[in-house]
Design goal:
single chain, about 375 residues, mainly alpha, two-stranded antiparallel sheet, 16 helices, 2 strands, globular
């Protein structure tokens, strides 16, 4: 399946409430919040989706120039994909064991936001190495490594982190053609049903008193209950708010966005300020505190409705180009980088604030580079001893 098609599906998934509903409702610390859909926000999403569809059909929506995986099943890139996957899973396992030793399984007595503020770096490490390891396992066609790789997203789900399993599914769709997806429709349906259950009906895992405490703004509020609020509601609510208030972001944000692309910028003492900081300091947004602004809200706060359409079209072109390069290249490292990054771009750019999203991509690039270099050293050492 083409990366362009996946990006369009992702856009629709995150913003369908704006298209089909006249009102949004969600749980907040102040009870049940609701807001009417702004016509301008609906027009922005509709025009952006329509523009992407027109562009994609003109380029060939389902057409792909080649397969991500070599046609010859015996092409193994000198065994490097296997080595890279093992190195990645080694790092992920070590970090995961340390995390579980210090915090146990799941949220425990912490809320999700509290736990993430304490060990968010560990989550990022596990996520980055797991994504690269899974992509490398797919390239190597090693079914045992592929099965083993699912340990990490399944455990992270207990901590409330669901984006890793979603990224895995995007990588699977990228490396599968349409006919193969149809043959495995049952698997996708079962996994999709599970994710919908977790995202929409998550409140079933919580006792009634916790739900009541959440609605009544008690001290027993649990961030885990935000599973009741599908992420599409959060993305739509933030975009609706930006359009309704005509909020505009300052140039300082884009300076911070550019600086955030520099590796180890935080260790140098500089902490880039996210979009939500500027929003919260301009507009009172307590009901929206758990929602993260993705691409469309930031684009509208920059150039209005034109920004939403331009950002979606330009990103679609970029994703299509990266997809084509990744499919055609003979170089394993480049293929690994592009497959790992595309798996995140096509999905997470609507979910995360851009400075945080840049840190995710930076982590994936770092994990891929480190694991690849270690694999080369190990392979070179084994060759010299052989």
């Amino acid at each position: 399946m083409s990366a362009r098609l996946i990006f369009i599906i992702s856009t629709f998934t995150y913003y369908y409430p704006i298209i089909f509903f006249n009102e949004l409702k969600w749980f907040s610390p102040y009870g049940i919040s609701n807001v009417e859909i702004n016509l301008g926000a609906r027009l922005c999403v509709l025009v952006a989706v329509f523009a992407m569809l027109i562009l994609s059909f003109s380029l060939g929506l389902k057409k792909t120039s080649a397969n991500w995986l070599p046609q010859d099943r015996y092409v193994d890139y000198c065994g490097l994909p296997h080595h890279v996957a093992v190195v990645c899973f080694f790092f992920s396992t070590i970090v995961l064991l340390v995390l579980i030793k210090n915090n146990g399984f799941g949220l425990g007595e912490h809320t999700k936001s509290e736990l993430y503020s304490q060990i968010g770096y560990e989550f990022k490490l596990i996520q980055s190495f797991s994504i690269v390891g899974f992509a490398s396992s797919i390239i190597s066609r090693n079914k045992y490594l592929i099965i083993f790789s699912f340990i990490f997203p399944l455990i992270l789900i207990s901590f409330g982190v669901r984006e890793l399993i979603a990224t895995y599914l995007v990588i699977l769709m990228l490396t599968s053609n349409i006919s193969k997806i149809k043959r495995n429709l049952t698997l996708f349906f079962l996994v999709g049903t599970f994710l919908v259950f977790v995202k929409v009906f998550g409140y079933g895992f919580y006792p009634a008193e916790v739900i009541n405490a959440y609605i009544n703004n008690s001290d027993q509020i649990s961030d885990g209950l935000m599973l009741i609020n599908p992420e599409s509601v959060g993305s739509s609510a933030i975009l609706n708010l930006i359009v309704l208030t005509n909020f505009k972001v300052t140039n300082n944000y884009f300076i911070d966005l550019f600086i955030s692309m520099i590796p180890f910028v935080k260790t140098l003492g500089y902490n880039p300020v996210g979009f939500d900081y500027y929003l919260a300091n301009t507009i009172s947004t307590p009901d929206y505190y758990t929602f993260s602004p993705g691409l469309f809200p930031i684009a509208f706060a920059t150039l209005g409705g034109l920004g939403v359409v331009l950002s979606s079209v330009l990103l679609l072109v970029l994703i299509g180009w990266l997809d084509r390069v990744g499919r055609l290249t003979r170089y394993f490292f480049l293929k690994l980088l592009l497959l790992s990054v595309l798996g995140s771009i096509a999905l997470l750019i609507h979910r995360h604030e851009l400075i945080y999203f840049v840190s995710v991509i930076r982590g994936i690039l770092g994990a891929a580079t480190i694991s690849y270099l270690i694999s080369l050293l190990l392979k070179g050492a084994s060759t010299s001893h052989g």
